[in-house]
Amino acid sequence: MSDMRILVTGGAGFIGSSLCEKLVAMGNNVVAIDSMFRGSEANLESILDSDNFALYAGDVRDVDDLDACIEALGGLDLIYHLAAINGTKWFHEAAHSVIDVNINGTLRTLELAMAHDAKYVFASSPEAFGEPLSQPLTDGDSMVFSDPSEHQRHSYGGSKYLGEIACHHAVRDGLDVQIVRPFNAYGPRLNGDEYGQVIAMFFQQLIDSRELNVHGDGTQTRSFTWIDDVVDGFVQAGMQDVPSGGVYNIGSTEEISILDLAKRIAKFTDGVTISNGEGYHGDVKRRLPNTSSSEKLLGWKSTVSLDDGLELMWHSLNL
Fold first, then answer.
1. How far is it, in rounded angstroms, from Cα 169 to Cα 114?
2. Is the full-model pTM beyond 0.90?
3. Average pLDDT, whole number, for the chain?
4. What CATH superfamily is the domain 84-183+225-251+284-303?
5. What is the enclosing helix (H) or strand (E) of 249?
6. How many percent of the chain have pLDDT more than 90?
7. Which of 142, 252, 253, 270 would bridge 302 by S-S if both were Cys, CB 3.0 to 4.6 A apart?
8. 3-state secondary structure of 119
């Protein structure tokens, strides 16, 4: 579909910027709003001068900022709500801010969508399952959270869980809502500092010191999904005519331990050592998606293997 009026919250972030590029290339009119806490104008360099794109530096919790975006669009057909405080260290260190931004940003944008009768796509997370009892993660599984006195990691997962509740409440009230749970998206713009995500952190460590630091014993497993596949999942959820209330796990089903991931990345250059450090609070041992709903209803499936994606990451560093 093209010529839609689309608001992308968190549009200067890692996933949001790539989504904006795709939507603009499809011929849609797009406004991105981003606080620039983690987003960057540089991520949007390729479309900043496009006639059908605008970037608004603002707060997704602020009704006036959101209204200014809609005024720039001249109306509203679709919201992609990606704005959130992400990054595992923030979950424990800044739980209050994580809860505030993630929950209130979701409530404000849902209200905006309802006011304009616009379709709404919510970026949830596998963290919404908390500490799941079974794998692979499947829509309808129990969402389990541990005692909050132990750690505040679930400030993020809990906010996404409540976001899904708010979304389904809006569905009950007649709004067209789709929920997307991206599983460990990675690509060249991914943040690789200490508040980033593991693949980018490993590549940054590879460049800086040639020592890759694995959290814990490294036996915890994840699946990693190339950014173009993740963006395609978001696009399909927003553009296809599917029943309201759909929930889609957008993730590769290729599972790997963090230690084995470090070993694969270490092979890109010589003289690399792997060490073990302290693990994250509440880190789950395994996270793997069941993607049957995504395949059946959206026709979506991950297409880029982990080996190919890591090669693409390495070449993007221009080393």
1. 12
2. yes
3. 95
4. NAD(P)-binding Rossmann-like Domain (3.40.50.720)
5. strand 246-250
6. 89
7. 252
8. strand
